[in-house]
Amino acid sequence: MSKISQTNLRIPGPTPVTPEILNEMSRFMINHRGDEFRSLIESVTARLKTIYQTNQDLYILTASGTGAMETAIVNTLSPGDSVLAITIGAFGDRFANIAETYGANVEILRSKLGEPADPDKVKAHLNSNPNIKAVLVTHNETSTGVTNDLKSIAKIVKDDFGKLLLVDGVSSVGSIPLETDSWKCDAVASASQKGWMAPPGLAFLSFSLEAWKANAYSNMPRFYFDLREYKKYMEIGQPPWTPNLSLFFALDKTLDLMLDEGVANIHTRHTETAQKFRDGVQELGLELLAKPECASDTITSVVLPEGIKVQEFLRLAKLDHNVEMAGGQQSLASKIFRIGHLGLVTDEEISQTLSAIKSSLEKLQ
Ligand code: PMP
Fold first, then answer.
1. Is the CB of 97 under 6 A from ligand 1?
2. Do 207 and 340 have their domain in common?
3. Is residue 321 a part of any domain in this protein?
4. What's the pLDDT band for 62 if we cut at 50, 70, 90?
5. Is residue 273 part of a domain?
6. Is the CB of 171 under 6 A from ligand 1?
7. Which of 141, 170, 300 to mutate to test the pocket of ligand 1 (most atoms within 8 A of CB)?
8. Is residue 297 domain-resident?
9. Is there an atom of ligand 1 within 6 Å of 195 CB?
10. 107: which of 8, 29, 209, 322 lies 20 to 30 Å off by Cα?
11. Distance from the CA of 66 to the center of ligand 1, in angstroms?
12. Is the residue at 1 inside a domain?
């Protein structure tokens, strides 16, 4: 039998899930078309909306975050629509790819890896391309550990140009500030395995009135992710398809924990934890990929010292210290490693991670 051990899981999701939350998943199944589930989905949705800071619609999908991103696109756009995809890394590229796959005419505004999008460039692009219908943007780019200035980007996209704004908030909502309604985000995607402290398998999508207006004209093909079905069924307190009940039970618990702590306190805790990692890594003489003003409070990317092979480094940290971190993606694959610090992170896990980094690097140098 394989050994089940609690790894110090410092990847950017799934995040560690406490035994208290895991226990919730051993609850007996219930009828997802019955009264008990109706009160569960209504209460979970209401609490998600509080954390999303939205009074508009929000749907829970049995899918991963990519499913919520796809849902945002196929429910608002039509093949041939012009879309601006602001990409600062692998997940921005994925958002663009989904839109392209469904036939949108995608224009890409790309930043150098490790840098955020420049709001002035977004403005200039929208100025010279008046036919753009929607803008896709990643709030927090997990592949580089960079947070975009979503508030400024949203102001331009919504106030200056009145375009639809579809946001990948997978690794941001519930961890760092994202004010869905006051920033006028039309759709914001997230997923249970990130700051929500639950296992993977549920995805969330807020959907504004503007997004519903676009939906009336949108004809991209969709079935499982057809939000009209979700809307119709939500009126009777059900999802259209069988939900992952066990994850709803887990989320029921984690949302209570989150609201007890308070949204502002959660954000402060993430900032403090991130700062401890950034300070600790720099004290080891290592360089951070992102500049302080755009460094993510949920993921830290660290430049690997010359000559160190990322896979060997990660293997040692896991083998000798039970600390599991992530490598880079795309062209950063061999250049950086990433530390995930969304959800719950204890001070002991921070110091264990930092000493794993120190001693694994010393061994390899
Ligand atoms: N966007 C971002 C910013 C992410 O961090 C992730 C997951 N790492 C995704 C999208 C994709 O989510 P999932 O793997 O849950 O489909």
1. no
2. no
3. yes
4. very high
5. yes
6. yes
7. 170
8. yes
9. no
10. 209
11. 6
12. no
The range of the structural domain enclosing residue 311 comes to 8-14+263-364
Is residue 196 in contact with ligand 1, taking CB distance under 6 Å? no
The per-residue pLDDT for 6 is 84
Pair (335, 191) in one structural domain? no
Q: What is the pTM of this model?
A: 0.98
Say yes or no: 238 and 115 in one domain. yes
Number of folded domains that form the chain? 2
- For the chain, what is the mean pLDDT? 97
Nearest-CA residue for ligand 1 atom 6 is 170
Exposed, middle or buried by CB within 10 Å (0-12, 13-18, 19+), for 159? exposed
Tell me which residue has its CA closest to atom 12 in ligand 1: 65
297 lines ligand 1 (CB under 6 A): no
Same domain? For 41 and 79 the reply is: yes
pLDDT in tens, 324-340: 999 999 899 999 999 99
- Report yes or no: 256 and 250 within 8 Å, Cβ to Cβ: no
* CB contact at 8 A, 58 and 207: yes
Residue 288 CA, ligand 1 centroid: distance in Å? 22
Contact yes or no for 55/49 (Cβ under 8 A): yes
Over residues 176-231, the pLDDT tens digits come to: 999 999 999 999 999 999 999 999 999 999 999 999 999 999 999 999 999 999 99
Q: Are residues 299 and 253 part of one domain?
A: no
Contact 65 CB / ligand 1 (< 6 Å) = yes
Ligand 1 closest atom vs CA 193 = 15
Are residues 233 and 111 part of one domain? yes
Cβ of residue 62 lying under 6 Å from some atom of ligand 1: no
H/E element holding 136?
strand 132-138
Nearest CA-CA partner of 86 in 162, 167, 177, 144: 167
Which residues contact residue 111 at a Cβ distance below 8 angstroms, ignoring those fewer than 6 apart? 87, 88, 117, 118
